[in-house]
Amino acid sequence: MIENLLFELEMAAPQVILGLVNGAFYALLSLGLAIIFGMLNVINFAHGAQFMMGAFVAWMLLAWAGIPYWGALVLAPLIVGAFGVVIERTMIARLYKLDHLYGLLLTFGLALIIEGVFRNAFGASGLPYAPPAAFNALNVDIAIMFLPGYRVWVVIASLLVCLATWLVIEKTKIGAYLRAATERPELVQAFGINVPRMMTLTYGAGVALAAFAGVLAAPIYSVNPAMGANFIITVFAVVVIGGMGSIMGSVVTGFGLGLIEGLARVVYPEASATVVFVIMAIVLLTRPAGLFGRG
Amino acid sequence: MADTTISLGTPEAVHEEAGFLGFTRAQALAFGVLVAFVVISPFFLYPVFLMKILCFALFACAFNLLIGYVGLLSFGHAAFFGMGGYITAHSLKVWGLTPELAILAGGLVGSVLGLGIGWLAIRRSGIYFAMITLAMAQMVYFFCLQAPFTGGEDGIQQVPRGSLFGMVSLDSDFTLYWVVAFVFLAGFLLFHRVVHSPFGQVMKAVRENEPRATSLGYRTDDYKLMAFVLSAALSGVAGGTKALVFGIATLTDVNWTMSGEVVLMTLVGGLGTVFGPVVGAAVIVTMQNYLAEFGAWVTVIQGVIFVACVLAFRRGVVGEIGNWLKVKL
Prior knowledge:
heterodimer, A: mainly alpha, 11 helices, 2 strands, B: two-stranded antiparallel sheet
């Protein structure tokens, strides 16, 4: 009996951990989407493409400039974030007065352009990116399973960044401005705060979060142009489930759904790809505004 | 509430005379041109290419019914299009149905799927509606990837065209063209009739001001759902017809990129115009045809067109022409 249970655990644990790693990416990506949406009222369809850019920039930094993983973890979000700032200034800023759906259409077009350019430049097959050997120190090798240290790091890094984002938004002055501008931009502007610039920087920060997730993902998944598109639709479902009202909501929903996906892979593998969407349907039926949404 | 809905290209024409089938005079003229083009072009152009345009034109019209007249942006219409294709292909190949029944089956399954997805999606509006339809369509995609009858990665291949009503063989492209042309024109007229019916008026009222429509006593959710189902049914018919023409149904047609393509076609032609989706479909299919050799650059070009349309060309081709001539097309 006990042995049986241990065997079951042995089978399940890696999948659950894998789910947690996926959840780390869902959390980071949906956090970025929620921040951008809160401030700009734009759903950033290019989020997946910018995630992919983060991974590619990390690969380029290593292959062309010899800058290792730790450098990339800082530089790639800055580079891709700067790219986001340019995009916001030149294109998205023109659409604020229009229907929000135009923002979705614009960023969808951007996603197509970015993915197409990378596919032309690097082909559709993936490029390898090795994690630094230092992570082997984090390897978990216990009776029921072996867990590569890098995956432990991904979960920790994601949690840390989510926590830091939450602290900035809830506990600092900039965060207070941001929350105020999300509620009543005109009023905040009237107090002499440069709201358009805040919007630009918010978009840049959200994009940087996506790129950070991309660098984290580079050693796990092969660096390829489609890696973002595969993620982003699931992340949209995560966002619908969690509602975009709260930061903690995004984080909890992201990790939770990653775990559920991992469990589904153990219990009923055929459903693992669709379980998030099924949950979305159930949430829509019972709480249309999302678990953490505000009406 | 003008900024909460997709703003439409042309202003409401002052004299909206309800002439033939609800067409205004300018629209009747444009419809005449369209019919003439459909009748004459197969004598000059490759019929398979034209049939592809007609299938996508019907698909784009179906999509436009939602975005242009109810103000709902669906990012999941590939689900209905692709599933319609699978059902038509399956019923032609395995069940041996005649083509007209197979296409109807495609439309029927499209509408059932639309009923399910629409029922969920209309609980939210705006951006959430787009994300929900996209996610549900992705679920349909995974279903098609795994279900045995779709043939997974291979799709359903070598689908026989069969004989219309069991009598007229469709093996000749030229014969098939007239069937496809009939399906397209019938679908187009149905779409137009619906938009200009009392039902269509309520749809537009929902688009302009939903709380007001509710206060007037309309169950707006019912109207949205009916529009969604109708749009899904027409998409299923379009997908089924495409499967009949090419003798193949694959995952490409259920993929999210296909949902994006139909958005692009409608956007290029003009959101909320009667003829825009047809023109947009013709433009995009022609472009894909000529640029096919450039491989992945086609995606980039489509993205550029998307961005350009949103930033500078929101009325679309037909919307711009209508605006210039001061008529509603």
